[in-house]
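Researcher: I'd like a candidate sequence for this fold, 284 residues long. If you have to choose between options at a position, lean toward the conservative one.
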């Protein structure tokens, strides 16, 4: 199947990165969000990223312009009517995702693949909101998308071989490394990563050490590029909480219970880097 045009839903940190790598691979991209100010924010993130590439001499100014010219913006979901693939990267919430997939199923062409960048939610359940579950698949990018090589590919119960191959080929075209995993809560990446982050939050909650000390231990002691609390702020504390809740509910095992401190920060609106405050504070 030839994929020429892709719609990315959600122009947040993941959606803007996903749109950027597709445009860099020569595909036409529609970047969609609820409000034009969110889409503009996504466009400005991409423009800054590409400008950095120009300054480093990796691409020319003309390349940057042609990449950006391949991206159009949308606040109207009917713009999915002529795309080959939709990649959903809206908030990590099952109700929002199933509502979006049910609507997309009505709008997108019959041949279109509906992919989700969910970081933990069951693909099979998202697929069941459509009448084309064989064309629904998990395409899980890592943050920051332009830098990280992995794409975790997750088949739902009904996903067809043809659709799996098309998404695997698309990932290779983006110069990513696809890894296939089964449809279980958190897949592989977040089943392993998120309990570590949650445990790091517990060490702060229980007064074992300060956030700075926890991060320093993991950076210098384990050679992690970022400490777990810096990483949690970078991912978004809301997303971290939603993932822990999915693991907790999905496995019914208390070892996945979210730390109360994580819940408290999210309730306070301390969502990490994107809101200016989490375990650390950030300049706007
Ligand atoms: C929650 C989920 O469902 C799944 C997830 O995504 S979990 C999160 C997975 N991601 C991680 O674990 C990231 C861990 N951190 C890292 O790997 C590194 O700290 C990092 C790549 C983010 C930054 O690397 P660094 O060496 O500390 O900083 P820096 O030298 O500024 O950046 C390295 C490169 O990344 C680029 N970069 C950094 N942040 C970027 C961003 N937000 N967007 C685009 N590019 C970025 C820089 O431009 C630089 O590019 P070049 O090498 O081409 O010059
Ligand atoms: N952060 C990470 O490191 C990773 C996240 N993911 C997954 O990617 C998805 C997005 O995460 P992330 O980019 O971090 O989140 P962000 O909060 O940065 O962005 C989400 C965007 O989606 C928008 N949105 C919400 N609801 C809808 C809707 N119904 N239609 C269209 N747009 C909508 C949001 O708008 P508003 O601000 O109004 O809510 C926001 O602009 C989640 O499923 C997450 O689990 C996957 C890998 C890594």
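Model: Candidate sequence:
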């Amino acid at each position: 199947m030839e994929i020429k045009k892709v719609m990315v839903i959600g122009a947040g940190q993941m959606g803007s990165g996903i749109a950027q790598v597709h445009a860099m691979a020569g595909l036409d991209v529609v970047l969609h969000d609820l409000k034009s100010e969110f889409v503009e924010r996504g466009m400005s993130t991409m423009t800054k990223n590409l400008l950095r590439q120009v300054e480093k001499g990796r691409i020319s100014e003309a390349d940057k312009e042609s990449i950006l010219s391949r991206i159009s913006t949308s606040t109207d979901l009917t713009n999915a009517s002529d795309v080959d693939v939709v990649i959903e990267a809206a908030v990590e919430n099952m109700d929002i995702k199933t509502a979006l997939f049910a609507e997309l199923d009505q709008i997108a062409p019959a041949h279109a693949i509906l992919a989700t960048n969910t970081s933990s939610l069951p693909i099979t359940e998202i697929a069941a909101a459509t009448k084309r579950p064989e064309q629904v698949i998990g395409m899980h990018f890592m943050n920051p998308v332009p830098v990280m090589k992995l794409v975790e590919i997750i088949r739902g119960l009904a996903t067809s071989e043809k659709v799996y191959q098309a998404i695997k080929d698309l990932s290779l075209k983006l110069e990513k490394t696809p890894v296939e995993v089964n449809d279980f809560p958190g897949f592989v990446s977040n089943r392993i990563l998120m309990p570590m982050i949650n445990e790091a939050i517990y060490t702060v909650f229980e007064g074992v050490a300060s956030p700075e000390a926890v991060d320093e231990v993991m950076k210098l002691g384990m050679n992690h590029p970022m400490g777990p609390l810096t990483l949690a702020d970078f991912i978004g504390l809301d997303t971290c909480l939603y993932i822990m809740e999915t693991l907790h509910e999905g496995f019914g095992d208390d070892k996945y219970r979210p730390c109360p401190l994580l819940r408290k920060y999210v309730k306070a609106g301390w969502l990490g880097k994107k809101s200016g405050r989490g375990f650390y504070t950030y300049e706007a």
